[in-house]
Design a protein that fits this description.
22% of the residues lie in helices and 31% in strands. The protein is an alpha+beta fold. Strands 1, 2, 3, 4, 6, 7, 8, 9 and 10 form a nine-stranded antiparallel sheet that branches. The longest helix has 18 residues, at 177-194. The chain is globular, with a radius of gyration of 16 Å.
């Protein structure tokens, strides 16, 4: 019997349904019992993921191919930690406000780790833990939020098509074309597939 092939992305990206606890946002917030979901299930929501070589991101051919194929021409870095981010506690709380963007949000974790929370087609929260070497793309129009985990440190490469667009639209902004397109392309398909 052959052994099941393990998806290498799962070593740097894990996802699970969240509990409803109001405890510290930096905790894992697993349900009891834990309810993990696959990265393929995330892809059905439009969330794409890769495992890359964070120790050699400057020369990583796979990253170069992804950037070229998806048109990611702009890149910078963001470090979220008490020592590097002014008004750290306030900023971490603001990142945790549920919002959407009119463009993709691309984050490649080159050090540390953090949580990206997204909604499934039934509005349940899914926590996506991204660790060093994990890269995710959140589609335009998906409601999401971010927080560091209890280690209080992430260094992420931010990628954009063209000039960076930083504007978060806090929920509700269902009237935006990006949200309507997301609902049509992912939410309605997921609901129809489950019927």
């Amino acid at each position: 019997m052959g052994e099941a092939v393990k998806d290498g992305r799962e070593e740097v990206i894990q996802a699970w349904y969240m509990d409803d606890s109001q405890e510290d946002q930096r905790l894992p917030h697993h349900k009891d019992p834990k309810e993990f979901i696959s990265l393929d299930k995330l892809a059905e929501l439009g969330v794409l993921s890769w495992r890359l070589d964070a120790d050699h991101y400057e020369t990583d051919e796979e990253l170069k191919k992804i950037r070229e194929s998806r048109g990611y021409s702009y890149m910078d870095f963001c470090e979220v930690c008490p020592e590097k981010l002014q008004n750290y506690e306030e900023k971490v709380k603001s990142f945790f406000e549920e919002h959407l963007h009119t463009d993709e949000e691309i984050r490649y974790c080159v050090a540390g780790s953090g949580y990206f929370d997204v909604r499934d087609s039934n509005e349940a929260w899914i926590r996506v833990w991204v660790k060093k070497g994990g890269m995710i793309v959140l589609p335009a129009g998906i409601y999401h939020r971010f927080t560091v985990d209890s280690d209080n440190y992430i260094k992420a490469m931010r990628l954009f098509v063209g000039e960076p667009v930083w504007t978060p639209y806090n929920r509700p902004h269902d009237h935006l074309p990006a949200r309507k397109e997301y609902v049509d392309n992912f939410v309605k398909k997921a609901i129809n597939a489950s019927v």
